[in-house]
Design brief:
Oligomer: single chain
Number of strands: 10
Order of helices and strands: HEHHHHEHHEHEHHHEHEEHHHHHHEHEEH
Strand order of the largest sheet: 4-5-6-3-7
Distance between the termini: 77 Å
Mean pLDDT: 86
Length: about 450
């Protein structure tokens, strides 16, 4: 009986996962290779897949340290970075189909990886990205539907671009062609002319699809720029291949200060979406629209893309999510610690990540982060000065914010001012009643403007 049990146990050894030492060893080799061979850019999952000749899913399993893989697979991954796989680099798991229980070895191993410096999109393969399971699952299902439209809206630095990137990644894995257009890259003069803007738009979509610029052949002054743009999509961009096209439009609210252009362009996007209900060619186009502020320009209800499709509004992290991220970074925090940081920055994902990054590196302690007397010289100093500069560029907006700052009660603001301040993350809104968004901003700006509120 004992012999049979031993044999049965041996049979159930179906895979290996990295030990802490093995993960550190592989991660160091990857980082060194990135410096020497990839201009210091972190290798993406796709680049890791190409280098190791392993499927992306397999690479994810190796770095996830949760699901067992074949030992030879792990050996191949190590060899791709001129490493020799040693017995101390891995351990056997009972069944390759069973996940290793969390939180144990897998999370402990993650803590020894250096976190990315906060700012911009969180890398697709980052183990420190905090998933929003319900939202992401719905987005992933929606984007695969013909003619889909997803609208992601929240203040700046809440994780919109990181979510957008993951939606595009999911779509690409399912065989879609994907293009991301960032309206921060539009030259100012292009916003002054609808025809020039739509040509720029079509050319950049074509560039993202790796198609030659054929605008001259499809643009017809007789029909006008909007019809020409639609023809270019219908007869060229969408017709060239059978695969669906997922088009993500980031920072689209930069069009709002140009209401005439914005109104025509948004009506065109709505038309694209509506055409999918009637014509097969347009079912291939799926849209992801990303913006930081509510719409404050007049749009006809039946010409707006902002009242159709799937609306997604990203919320601040709660204290449980902050605690989970802190533990993922290897910080021995309590629920109270997470709650204090959450309250201080109102759960703003970027501000949370800044604090955890510097605490993890040993630059500061939590107590020092929360010390209000040194805020302007602390880890948030550069960000706070940037927000101050942004406000000073618009005196009326600054005056509106000071009113909120000096009041002990919610302040009613002009709708446009309220939306702009909310998009900057400086206020919370209930209707157009504004309050300062967090203790960090309240303390810093109160000192600057002599508020006693």
């Amino acid at each position: 009986m004992i012999v049979l049990e031993q044999k049965d146990q041996q049979k159930r050894k179906r895979g290996v996962i990295l030990t802490r030492k093995g993960l550190q060893k592989l991660e160091k080799a990857r980082a060194d290779a990135a410096v020497k061979e990839n201009n210091s850019f972190r290798y993406t999952l796709e680049e890791m897949s190409e280098r190791t000749r392993l499927a992306v899913n397999t690479v994810m399993k190796i770095y996830g340290c949760e699901v067992g893989v074949d030992r030879n697979t792990l050996k191949r991954c190590f060899s791709a970075f001129n490493l020799t796989l040693e017995t101390s680099d891995y351990r056997w798991v009972a069944d390759a189909s069973n996940r290793v229980k969390q939180p144990t070895a897998a999370k402990l191993q993650i803590t020894n990886m250096e976190p990315e410096q906060p700012g911009g999109q969180v890398p697709l393969d980052s183990p420190f990205y905090l998933q929003r399971d319900a939202i992401e699952s719905e987005c992933y299902q929606t984007i695969l539907q013909p003619g889909a439209l997803i609208r992601i809206q929240s203040p700046r630095r809440m994780g919109k671009t990181s979510l957008m990137a993951r939606i595009l990644q999911k779509a690409a894995e399912e065989g879609c062609r994907t293009v991301a257009i960032d309206f921060q890259l539009v030259d100012r003069e292009i916003f002054q002319d609808l025809d020039k803007f739509l040509r720029w738009f079509c050319a950049n979509v074509g560039l993202g699809l790796q198609l030659r610029n054929q605008i001259g052949e499809y643009w017809d002054d007789l029909f006008g720029s909007q019809v020409s743009c639609k023809m270019y999509f219908e007869e060229y961009l969408l017709a060239t291949k059978d695969e669906p096209v997922v088009l993500a439009l980031d920072e689209i609210d930069l069009l709002f200060p140009h209401p005439n252009l914005a109104g025509d362009f948004f009506a065109l996007l709505r038309n694209f979406h509506e055409e999918a209900k009637n014509r097969e060619i347009w079912r291939k186009l799926r849209l992801v629209v990303v913006h930081s502020t509510e719409i404050y320009i007049p749009l006809s209800a039946n010409k707006s893309p902002f009242n159709v499709g799937l609306p997604v509004e990203l919320q601040p992290f709660n204290s449980e999510e902050v605690l989970a991220l802190a533990k993922r970074l290897g910080l021995d925090w309590s629920t109270e610690d997470a709650g204090r940081l959450t309250a201080f920055v109102n759960g703003n994902p970027y501000l949370v990540r800044v604090a955890l990054y510097h605490i993890r590196r040993g630059d500061v302690t939590l107590e020092q982060v929360l010390e209000t007397t040194s805020i302007s010289a602390g880890i948030y100093g550069d960000r706070l000065q940037r927000e101050l500069w942004n406000l000073q560029q618009e005196p009326e907006l600054l005056a509106a914010f000071v009113r909120v700052l000096e009041s002990s009660k919610p302040v009613e603001l002009d709708l446009v001012e309220a939306f702009k301040l909310q998009s900057m993350g400086l206020v919370n809104l209930q209707g157009n009643q504004a309050t300062v968004s967090c203790q960090l901003y309240e303390q810093f700006f109160s000192e600057r403007f002599g508020s006693s509120g």
